[in-house]
Each structure stands twice: as structure tokens, then as C-alpha cells.
Amino acid sequence: MQEETDPVRITVQATAASYQHAPLWMEWRGGAPPREPLALQHGAHFIPAQLARVDGKRYIVWIEPDLPRGKTKLYTLRPHPRPTEGYQHTQTENALQIRYQGKPFTAYVFRGAPKPYLYPVMGPTEKPITRHFPMQRVAGETTDHPHHRSIWFTHGEVNGVDFWTEGNNRGSIVHLALETIESGPVLARWAARNEWRTPDGKPILGERTEIICYHAPDSRWLDYIVSLTALEMDVKFGDTKEGTFGVRVASSMEVTRNAGGQIVNAAGQRDRDAWGKRAPWCDYTGLLEGEVVGVAIFDHPANLRHPTYWHVRDYGLFAANPFGVHDFVAGTPKGEGDHTLKKGDTLTFRYRLWLHKARTEQAGVAEQYEAYRHAPRIVFRP
After folding, report:
1. What does pTM read for this prediction?
2. Is domain 87-372 annotated with CATH 2.70.98?
3. Among the CATH numbers 3.40.50, 3.90.70, 2.60.40, 1.10.3470, which is that of 8-81?
4. Alpha helical stretches, state H, 18-83
5. What's the CA gap between 317 and 368, in Å, rounded?
6. pLDDT over 70 at 119, yes or no
7. What is the mean pLDDT of residues 153-166?
8. 129 with 288: CB under 8 angstroms?
9. What is the pLDDT of residues 17-62, one digit of tens each?
């Protein structure tokens, strides 16, 4: 085991982006890392770090406070002299509850509905940033589209079956198991195994969903990674706007309320003009109990048909959908957006949600997307 007298030096070079309160991962290739809880020391400052284990590899993870593009920072990795409280998790019969410093952040609800979803989701002001309905009825909220459950991943045409809406003759996503659960000073992370089943109960897709939560003073992150495997046959994702990675923002943020709601994508298209357009990111901002907050979704460059199409509505629906081409592009024939996953093959989608304060430009959404897209160069020397 490394001792405090034998520190590890880490050099971080911001070659392609700036990193301001952004999550960073460094693969640990040495022997045993220093004892936990960990910290990265820069001068007199100690930044909490966490050891994460993913697919047999070990990573050091931290929230980089400020590293402008073109700059370099030198850290020393050592045990934290003043450990700080971070994430905690509790599993119940129906959900995995996630807290940060003792306060609720979110829950992964895996039973009691036709699909798993995240609810509630606390934004950067520690108030719910997604709609309560249909999980709860709250005065003043809209109650349309009861299948819009806070944050979820489904699609409206999978081998002809509708998994997007809910009710009779609809598909369902059934929870099988939680494989990985970890929480600490920097992140909470879990992986779930699910199955997509037709109305008669036949499994057609295996799903592995991994979700990672991070926290900074004025923002929160959710990394959402979904891997879908065709089980017994080829699976066709149909060309429909009804999908796919969805968020229903808090009702007070809806553009249709004419109370400050606003949609902006990476190309600068706004509100209704952003619907059906392709962009690497899109941001939905509005008022939440008198404060301006936003939900930005980042489409990973490796995703199918990146940059994705956005099924984003002025009434509060906010979804990334790579399949609904004929709905989004006028004159395109039905079926142009179909995608067939061959039996045994796997299709993975990666998204980052950034829950932030302030409007799109002031918050620096474009800069945060670049930090997501481009990892810095990191070198460590034991």
C-alpha cells in the first residue's frame, strides 16, 4: 500500500477543452493506490477523490474545479487529511435511494411501473427539477402524458411494440437485478439489468443501464449509459418520434407557460424551432420557485446517428431520439430512421445530463459539453 510519504504525482493537461467543476476519470495502472478516503492536493487545497472499479479496471475520479484550455495542473494524490461526506445509497424493495450529504438527490425506481425511471431528481437549488406527475399529484402541475415519468429510456416502436406509452397491449421493461452499487465522496454509481418484454411476456431485449451521479456547488450531473442486446431474434427500432431518452422538466419551466421557459440547442435554435433538429446538445431552462435553472442533455459522439435529433416540446417533454427521422425531417419516407439490431449484437447509448443554474450561455453549457466530449491528457507517476 502506498503511504503518505510516498505520494503519487498527477499531471493534467487541458489540451482540447476547459474543465470548470467537471468530472474527470483517470485509469489507475499502478499497484495499490493510497488508502481511502483520497484527495488530490494542489498547493494548500485538497480536492476529494474516489476510487471506482469498472469492468475490472480501477479509476481515480474527482471534480476538477478550474482548469482552462491550454493549461496544466500538477496534483499529488494522497489520503485526505479532512474527509468530506458525499453520496450514500439505500436499497428498498422498489427503488435505490441516493442521497448527498444526507439530503435526497434521486431514486432509481425499478418496480411499480412499466419501466424503470429516476424520481425525484433534485436540481442545483435542491428542489425537484422534473415533473412530479404521474408519481404524485401536485397543485399547479400539468397532468398530460402520464407515461412521462421524470427521467427514463424507452422507445415507441420496437419490433412493432410500443414501449413509450403505457397501458394495455404495450411493452414493459422488467427489472432483473442491481449488479453494482457504490457511493462515496465524489460519485454514486449503479448498474441494473432489465429485460424489454412484449405484451405477452416474451423478452426481446436485454438491457444494462449504468447511472453515475456527481455534485458541484452550482450543478449536478447524471451520466446515463444504456446497452441493449437483441436476445432471440433481430430487433428493429422503428422510425417514430415517440422516444427515446426522455426527461419531463418541472411544470414551471414549460415554455408554454410564458413564464421564462426556454429551449436552446447547440446551433442556437430556440423553443419550437429546436424540435426535430440535430444537435450535439440541447438545454431546457426556466424558473423553479423563482430561480433560473436548466437541464442540459449531452449526446455522446459515439452514439448512433450523432448528433441526435431532439424530440423537445414547449410543453415540457425533452427527449433525444436518433430514430424518428421521418417525423423530424419533412418529406422523408417512413422507415428511413429504422435501425435493426442483429440477434446477439449490442447497441450502447451514452448521455450526460447537466443540471445547472442560470441560462444556457451564462451557465456555460457549450463549454461543459466540450469537457464531456474531450478528456484531458493525464499522466501519473508513482
Report:
1. 0.96
2. yes
3. 2.60.40
4. none
5. 22
6. yes
7. 98
8. yes
9. 999 999 999 999 878 888 889 999 999 999 999 999 999 999 999 9
Burial call 206-219: b when 16+ CB within 10 Å, e when fewer: bbbbbbbbbbbeeb
Residue pointed to by grid coordinates 453520496 = 87
Which contiguous run of DSSP H or E holds residue 52? strand 45-54
CB 60 within 8 A of CB 77: yes
pLDDT tens profile 215-242: 999 999 999 999 999 999 999 999 999 9
pLDDT of 1 reads 39
Query: Contact 218/357 with Cβ under 8 angstroms?
Result: yes
Q: Strands of 72-79's sheet, edge to edge?
A: 22-27, 57-64, 45-54, 38-42, 72-79, 8-13, 377-381
What letter would DSSP give residue 29? -
**How far is the C-alpha of 87 from the C-alpha of 102, rounded, in Å?**
8
Q: Whose CA is closest to 282, among 271, 261, 297?
A: 297
Q: Looking at the DSSP assignment, which residues form a beta bridge with residue 317? A: 248
Q: Where are the domains of the chain?
A: 8-81, 87-372
- pLDDT score of 76: 95
Q: Which of 321, 314, 317 is closest to 299 using CA atoms?
A: 321
What does the pLDDT read at residue 4?
46
Closest by CA position to 50, among listed 245, 215, 263, 226 = 215
325-359 in b/e burial notation, b at 16+ Cβ within 10 A? Answer: bbbbeeeeeeeebeeebeeeeebebbbbbbbbbbb
pLDDT attached to residue 175? 98
193 or 31: which leads in pLDDT: 193
**Given a cut of 80, is residue 105 above it in pLDDT?**
yes
d(CA 63, CA 91): 26
Distance CA 74, CA 72 (A): 7
Task: Give me the amino acid identity at 56.
Answer: G
